[in-house]
Automatic annotation (TrEMBL), chain B:
GO BP, one annotated term: D-methionine transmembrane transport
InterPro entries in UniProt: AA_ABC_Transporter_Permease, MetI-like, MetI-like_sf
Name of the protein: ABC transporter permease
Keyword Transcription: no
Pfam hit, one: BPD_transp_1
The organism's taxonomic lineage, starting at the top: Bacteria, Pseudomonadati, Pseudomonadota, Gammaproteobacteria, Pseudomonadales
Membrane topology value: Multi-pass membrane protein
Signal peptide: none
Length: 382, 214
């Protein structure tokens, strides 16, 4: 009996990618990631030749976390989130859900997969010809769920989203926030393990946004499902996400826990996106700001930022005394994200015997012990 | 005597328009669904089928009804065994009405927001689910409006068929009004046609409005 005649099986299979194997070894948590992207690329046929929307995205999303993907429009967020339920077919790379590659799923397996993944949309995408009840019932109906079971489930979900009394209304009769609640009920009707949110609050006013985000947070905690959301609003990320990636031109440019990315953004894009949340200089002061001191009594304007564990905020009196002179607070505040405090102070220091650079170093040195900090000299005012 | 003749004419017109429009409805909706779903980016994308079908529909749409009717005479004889009377008119009427209605229904189906199809896919709908639970219900008000237009157009065409011996109101108007200069009958036929068209239009509009929940 000769084995040599048997075809060499392994030769036809793609070689194991050493990079990924190594990564899995170094980061054991990757092996039980809920959703994992490995070198995912996406190319569209545009009018002026191919357009690459995603460049080799590597990412692992853990079970039960609220994961944010942020970027400017056209950054590839939409394409990325749609590869998870294969509304978008990646051009290259793999998407694993519970360690299973979904790339070669046929229609049957895809339908089964999509019933485990709910999705809500920016423009709600409710069927206009169906009532609220029928909209929420539709996913169950097409799955062939028996009537009594459907009724129980729809009632339960309308109750969860607080629309029990609206079940006979048509979407056109609802407000934006109510429509999104119907969307959420519809997305959850199959008890999915993952909820995808595609700019789910971008068409809503700030107050409604807060209530929808609150509902999502509640669902995440009560049902323990993984929420993956894309947005261009940093406030959404701040309010409910655990971790965030920043996407730009189809590349991941920054990622980490939200408090870290917020407290100390590294990339230019992250800083731009964060800008609306930061307190700038008052306009009147901005106009008077000079880059060089015109006279000896000009005050130094400092921006002091610090990030650290809460319940141990810095002693401001002590900080001010290290600067010497008279310290005025122009603007200041502390935000709390995930048990971390992110503080920002705008100070005007006058009559100090120390130079601006010396003041900056002293403030840094003072905060350095317990805080991640950043101190910069913005300029001088008379 | 002439009242009986008019009544028979109304019944014949109803028969011709009713039967041909009913067949057009049953054949036109599937045709429209195929035209929409097989198109570029459709859920059953099939470019070749789409262009062949599209060309076929355009062909029949571009032939004036009077010429189509005459050209189809051999085919009509094959199907109903005669080229004279109500049933002989139903054949060319159906063949004219089906592509006409299919094109109008196609426009309504195409106007269904792509986001709804995406949402249906995301919730685990199979493709035929999308046709049945999303495309058709969402396009229904538009399809009803389109069918109203088809009915009115078929009344128009059936009158033309009357001229080559199909019976109906058109036949009466042609024989008595045109060939015998009986303007009273001509006027009566016109009034009847106006009432008929107005009733259909009114009913169709009302139904479309009730169905439209947007």
């Amino acid at each position: 009996m000769s084995v040599a005649y048997l075809p060499h099986k392994t030769a036809t299979q793609p070689p194991e990618q050493p990079h990924n194997a190594q990564q899995a070894e170094l980061h054991p948590e990757l092996n039980h990631a809920h959703v994992r992207f490995i070198g995912v690329t996406k190319t569209y046929q545009g009018q002026q030749g191919p357009v690459q929307a995603l460049h080799g995205i590597d990412l692992a999303i853990q079970r039960g976390e609220v994961f944010g993907i942020i970027g400017r429009s056209g950054a590839g967020k939409s394409s990325l989130i749609r590869t998870i339920n294969r509304l978008e077919q990646p051009s290259g790379g793999r998407v694993l859900i519970d360690q299973v590659d979904i790339g070669d799923f046929d229609e049957d397996r895809l339908v089964e997969l999509r019933r485990r993944i709910g999705m809500i949309f920016q423009h709600f995408n409710l069927m206009s010809a169906k009532t609220v009840w029928q909209n929420v019932e539709l996913p169950l109906k097409v799955a062939g769920v028996p009537k009594e079971q459907r009724e129980r489930k729809v009632r339960e979900l309308l109750e969860l989203v607080g629309l029990k009394d609206k079940h006979k209304a048509y979407p056109a009769q609802l407000s934006g926030g109510q429509k999104q609640r119907v969307g959420i009920a519809r997305a959850l009707v199959h008890d999915p393990a993952i909820l995808l949110c595609d700019e789910a609050t971008s068409a809503l006013d700030p107050e409604t946004t807060q209530s929808i985000l609150g509902l999502l947070k509640q669902i995440n905690q009560r049902l323990g499902l993984t929420i993956i959301l894309i947005t261009h609003e940093m406030a959404v990320i701040r309010d409910i996400c655990d971790r965030v990636v920043v996407l730009e031109h189809g590349h991941i440019v920054e990622q980490g826990p939200v408090w870290e990315v917020f407290g100390n953004p590294q990339h230019e894009v992250s800083k731009t996106l964060l800008a609306p949340l930061q307190h700038g200089l008052p306009e009147e002061l901005q106009n008077r700001l000079q880059s060089q001191p015109k006279s000896s009594d000009a005050a130094v304007v400092l921006r002091v930022q610090f990030t650290g564990r809460t319940s141990d905020e810095p002693d401001l009196a002590a900080l001010f005394s290290t600067l010497g002179g008279r310290v005025r607070l122009l603007h200041g505040g502390v935000e709390r994200i995930q048990g971390h405090a992110l503080g920002q102070l705008l100070l005007a220091v006058s009559g100090s015997s120390l130079g601006a650079e010396e003041q900056r170093l002293r403030a840094q040195h003072f905060l350095h012990k317990q805080w991640t900090q950043q101190v910069e000299v913005l300029g001088y005012v008379v | 005597m002439w009242f009986d003749r008019l009544l028979q004419g109304v019944i014949d017109t109803f028969l011709m328009v009713g039967v041909s429009s009913l067949i057009a409805l049953l054949a036109g909706i599937p045709l429209a669904v195929i035209l929409v779903t097989s198109g570029k980016g459709g859920i059953y994308e099939a470019p070749r089928l789409n262009s062949v079908l599209g060309a076929f529909v355009n062909l029949f749409r571009s032939i004036p009804f009077l010429i189509l009717m005459v050209a189809l005479i051999p085919f009509t004889r094959l199907i109903v065994g005669t080229t004279y009377g109500v049933w002989a008119a139903v054949v060319p009427l159906t063949i004219a009405a089906t592509p006409f209605f299919a094109r109008i229904a196609e426009v309504s189906l195409r106007e269904v927001d792509h986001g709804l199809i995406e949402a249906a896919q995301a919730m685990g709908c199979r493709r035929w689910h999308i046709v049945w639970h999303v495309l058709l219900p969402e396009a229904l008000p538009g399809i009803v409006g389109g069918f109203t237009i088809t009915l009115v157009t078929m009344i128009n065409s059936s009158a033309m068929a009357g001229a080559i011996g199909a019976g109906g109101l058109g036949d009466i108007a042609y024989r008595y009004g045109y060939q015998r200069f009986d303007s009273q009958i001509m006027l009566t036929v016109i009034v009847l046609l106006v009432i008929l068209v107005a009733a259909i239009q009114l009913g169709g509009d009302r139904l479309a409005r009730v169905l439209n929940k947007r």
